[in-house]
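User: Run a structure prediction on this.
Assistant: Running it now.
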Amino acid sequence: MADAPARTLIKTPFGFESTAAEVIAGIDLSDKRTIVTGGSSGIGVETARALASAGADVTLAVRDTDAGQRTAADITETTGNDAIYVGRLDLADPASVAAFVAAWDGPLDILVNNAGVMALPELQLTPGGWERQFATNHLGHFFLANGLHASLAASGGARIVSLSSRGHLRSPVVFDDVNFSDRPYDPWLAYGQSKTANVLFAVAATQRWAGEGIYANAVHPGAIIETNLSRYSMDPALQAQLRESGEYTTPEGVRLRFKTIAQGAATSVLAATSPQLEHVGGRYFEDCNEAGVLAGEDLGAYAAGVAAYAVDPNNARRLWELSVHAFGRA
């Protein structure tokens, strides 16, 4: 049997240097209700600001509600949109996720699963026994999206944006040992498998929910220095140096360019709002364009593209089953 023809990748007018404001220019979200997790810091703020600038109702789902209220006030001041709300959400705590879901009423048009943690220096387990990066970055968002499933379906055309990272290239989901019970803990492998899980979630959610008008896509926002995400993984002096230079050459000789926070939010905003992504799901975007699937020999921690294991439908189904089982253990 002949191989299926390669799918044409979605290309947009935007790229590495595009900002969230540029991506959303001309788009009207005045009848849309949206949630941004981690919306009180980093690229979550600029994602929420862009959605608000287009007229959307925006709920900031955050652990620190005081910080959320300050951010909401700032977004209202800069956009003129006073429909900015704050809800408490701790993704590592299933009871907190359940309370947030219970408080939500009515349709939901856009869910941006933005919050996350990166490279925790030591193994941390949740009370349910899950490695904390996997629990926060994937399971918490999985519980949230499933809890809001009826609201997403009621939209009649909902989008989920699942924030991944090129860090997913460091590790597939190790299904037989997600929690590092039988292997040495490595902060970057743990982060990598959680980011792979974010891509697989987008694949699986689209598989299951597209018939209800719900489509999910994964995004890599880019390398950004000025966020809290790198607090466990980078020396403060190096952070300051990188802010000044805007780029870094790795020990492997790979040149990395860093984005501003406004640029880092652009791909999320594109996945959430672009007319080009109407009824499109299960894909991976970086620099505001769909990325291709990497061949095995191209796989590396800094490569551009998505690993085949991260978009594999069988892996997506397996992760969904594992995550459903986690409800009982969480």
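Confidence is low (pLDDT under 50) at residues 227-234.
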